Amino acid sequence: MAVSTAVAVVGAAESDLGATGKSILHLQAQAVTRALADAGLCLADVDGLATAGASRFSAAQVAEYLGIEPAWTDSTFAGGSAFEMYVARAAQAIGAGQCSTVLISHGSDQRSARSRSLAGAAETHTPQAQFETPYGPLFPLSHYAMAAQRYLHVHGARREHLAEIAVAAREWALRNPAAFRYGAGPLTVDEVLAAPMVSSPLTAADCCLVTDGGGAIVLTSLERARDLRPDPVVVLGYGESTTNAGMAAPDDLLRPGSIGSGRRAFAMAGLGPGDVDVAEVYDSFTITVLMTLEGLGFCGPGEAAGFVGGGRIRPGGAFPLNTNGGGLSYCHPGMYGLLLLVEAVRQLRGECGDRQVPGAEVALAHGTGGVFSTHATVLLGVDR
Amino acid sequence: MTIPADEITAPWWEATRRGSLLLQRCGACRRAQHYPRALCAACGSTDLTWTESAGRGVVDSFTVVHRSPFPEPQAPYVVARVRLAEGPVLLTNLVGAAPDDWRCDEPVRLTWRPVGDGRRLPVFEKE
After folding, report:
1. Minimum-distance CB partner of A129 among B4, B63, B93
2. ipTM of predicted complex
3. Which residues contact A98 (CB under 8 A, 6 or more apart)?
4. pTM score, two decimals?
């Protein structure tokens, strides 16, 4: 099954990133106005809005702030993968004629507001509040740490293999002036291993940044996109999978939902892992990337530790991965999923300067939310 | 911190006072489940009865928490997934050994930690 009505991304932008001192809605407004300017469109053209994290009624909140009354909204709350899910919903809404121009946006002030806690958010009515929280797991870190521990045990991998993900991300960040760690210099495997242990086997250097940040993308029909200034970036396929809310629920920690989301996205696009020129894979933690690469079929179970070695995922390597520096070294606002899409779009347009992947025609963006809970894969391509 | 309970889970929590770890057993598919629910998550049946776990299992995975925002337990402590012999996986703590002295797949047995109001939390120690 192919995407029924061809839909394209026609605008993409970041807000200010890092430690901004700006509010959530200010960052949203920055990202939105920049993405619309990139597309050559204005707010009056927007009749669809998808966003999360602004408030309980996120779409209403952001729509009011922007001064628009959209005919279609989505505020599906799925953590980091929500924005990849919005691409799917937006393509369907445009295809069904419910709206014509969709804005997908996010903004987070979590570093300036010091709103991030190792405990996560408390929801006392959930089963996890009764049967998991009393044991003191860090949320979401301890779940990924247990997945990593099991991964190392079953596959005979070492912490050095996890560390390579952070080291490669830093190499890419050194080529991205917008990255939080742009001027920080290279990171070594030994430095990752020697960083303070937080939830074993993951150290602070295995964990993504905590920064402010935001972004926005604009989608419309491919037909209309061809009349706009930027080169259209076509939505080739998408797929998702939602697997669990708590840490005890998955029967097998090493079978993530990316197996299902990737299979569905590739089937829709009529492509396979070998067709991907550049991959933007949510790196909340180093283990997230190893397991997602396996889930998406870039390598077999237990093979990611070897796959990422030998410089393959670093600049100049055969498998360009997380080319903006990722959540580990570029930016990680409350939910990073939108910035995966922004980088994928820019790579396909050839706008990435020192970090540009030459001739990139197919890009993959994969979001992961919660405790390996929600998974969404989007395949994007140049207009042929 | 008072651990919440609800109308479905209250019998499970009451049983912890007498040192009994309950599971739900489905009358239709015979699967055991944890945590207690209003239906069987394997087949959808609402024919559920309580059964007592023998308290034996293996460590599926674990993590040593070195930096914690919680008042209890005191870091470093071990958070783990334990797979009971009856099938279900529980989130729990591993106790009675040094935090760095645990391995995946090692056998463990049930013990209890009081939570201050007469109820107790099932935790696990080395077999």
Report:
1. B4
2. 0.98
3. A48, A71, A72
4. 0.97
